What we know:
Number of strands: 16
Strand content: 25-35%
Largest sheet: 6 strands, mixed
Distance between the termini: 28 Å
CATH superfamily: Carbon-nitrogen hydrolase
Radius of gyration: 17 Å
Shape: globular
CATH topology: Nitrilase/N-carbamoyl-D-aminoacid amidohydrolase
Strand order of the largest sheet: 5-4-3-2-1-16
Helix content: 10-25%
CATH class: Alpha Beta
Structural class: alpha/beta
CATH architecture: 4-Layer Sandwich
Amino acid sequence: MKVAVFSSNIIDEDIDGNLQRQQAILSSLEPETDLVVLPEMSSTGFITNTDFAQPMNGQTVSFWKRFAIQKHTAVATSLFIKEKDNYFNRHFFFFPNGQYEYYDKHNLFSMSNEPEVITSGSKRKIVEYCGMRIALFTCYDLRFALWCANSYSQDRGYAYDVAVFVASWPKTRVEAFSCLLKARAIENLAYVIGVNRLGQDKRQNDYNGFACVIDYKGLSLVQSQDKETISYCTIDKPSLEAFRASLPVGRDW
């Protein structure tokens, strides 16, 4: 599976500008890319101003559905969504046919007012794509190892093969972001994809756009930071399965 990680420079509350910029940069997406991963709340920045929350049939969901179809690729990112009287930090996985599944962020960041505005999700989400089982997580979830924990059964094997973390993780704590991504990969015997935003938010927090793909041994397959760029790598199921067979930690969970 060919993965593209895109550390987008996001301007808070500028939906039109962000989408236009992302579309322009992604117009040069390499052929046969299977999955594009963008940061958390990629169209609005990490905000709680409900004036910028979008309905499920709104501009941002429609934009990424069209993009996935046009580019024949899947897209993972979270969006600020309003549904009835509730607001969600919703991590979408758009398939190349325009269909989608989603995960609502469970662990809300209490050092902001996210818990006062956003409704916490209660269920994890694992999607199947390109022969991989892919678990969707969002930013602060990364600090909660039990919430992110993989599982194993004799009948179905491992619950997931890849964990995707979309994030808005400030530059001052980016070393923790890097270390925790590696820890989640090692302890869960899975690939981990982490994509952080670039730029500065309205609260003057700086972000360095750290993005990476880490393998099941904790080794970085690709890594970028400090620039708005698309980075590529290929991950494969057979090598993952071979490693799991040689070190069957899951049987002891």
